[in-house]
Description:
Chain A has 223 residues and is mainly alpha-helical.
Amino acid sequence: MEREHYSKQFDTELNEIRQRLLEMGGKVEVMINDSLKALVERDSDLAERVIASDHEINRLEMEIDERCLEVLARRQPAARDLRFITLALKIVTDLERIGDQCRNIGKRTLELNEEPPLKPYIDMPRMAQWSGVMVKEALDAFVQGDDQLAYKVCRDDQFVDDLNDQIQRELLTFMIADPTSISRAMKINQISKCLERIADHATNVAEMVIFMIKGKDIRHMSI
Amino acid sequence: MEREHYSKQFDTELNEIRQRLLEMGGKVEVMINDSLKALVERDSDLAERVIASDHEINRLEMEIDERCLEVLARRQPAARDLRFITLALKIVTDLERIGDQCRNIGKRTLELNEEPPLKPYIDMPRMAQWSGVMVKEALDAFVQGDDQLAYKVCRDDQFVDDLNDQIQRELLTFMIADPTSISRAMKINQISKCLERIADHATNVAEMVIFMIKGKDIRHMSI
Lengths: 223, 223
């Protein structure tokens, strides 16, 4: 009975870590969507709110880190549970850095809003939506232990990379045609790269999840 | 005696993780220096070697990860040792991503070598040297538990950021003056951003080290 009680408490603690990670992931998704909404609608207030919300993400990172360390110290888990917690520690770092990227998008948006618009955004919102879904699916794959979903995230990264290349090429033609557009085009280019990095973080998470489930490291293999 | 023997073996294992991390850090430093040497001297062979050496870094990451998990499972460390190992797990991820940045520099260098040079590089080698020292010092701070050295790394990041800003502004003037320079200038801009990200990874490591030593999280405070 003692052992069963212990094990139930441990399960509760692992579930709590799972829930906190999902909560953090949900907030990061909102940041991604809001940062792009602020860009497309030239909404500086929203951009400011995105920048401010990064603090919340940083706080969550520290809390989940501490929680993982507590559980590791108290429960001394083995095998699968150990792998789960050490992976959670790595994943929060990726989520926190996604928050940093959203804050960067917010900052560039504030700068862009002080100048006339260069062009309507078409590929960028698709890229943001795609990246947000990748973050969500990578976390779902983690908490559900779903390797097929994780593989999907890895494959989807190529599409975001392709969109980023397309945006960069398009911006290049703007810059060549009109030197006064260069400064704005470079800021838009930076935002595109932020989104590409967000998708990279999601892919990193997915690759680590596959390693957790399959014991197979695909981080440095082509799949 | 049994306990002492156990403890000695554990110390040996922790030391081995320390040594492996330093070894990985040393290889990453060489990559940073070589990638810039390849850029400055337009040496495509060296750039190819940098790209190829990323595999070695990836292998080291997987090995150290596995070693940390083994020690966690077998020794079930508490307090300081636990914090040390979980931090090692996070640090290898940063080192691996520094390797990715060097590989990116190598790829851009190969592209740049197919076109005439834009200008001599002055700030970029300084930025690379600075970033390499930051990586080394961040790791030294980790293995020696030296918080003062870690604080220094955090402060030094500003200098690399300033150099990156300066390079970006300079490239902008090139692009405005001569549209045929834009494609090359953007590649150089990407390399500059790679170096900035390398310094960011070193700073991330240093911030985590300060947290390990002081129990104080400065990741999200201004120091």
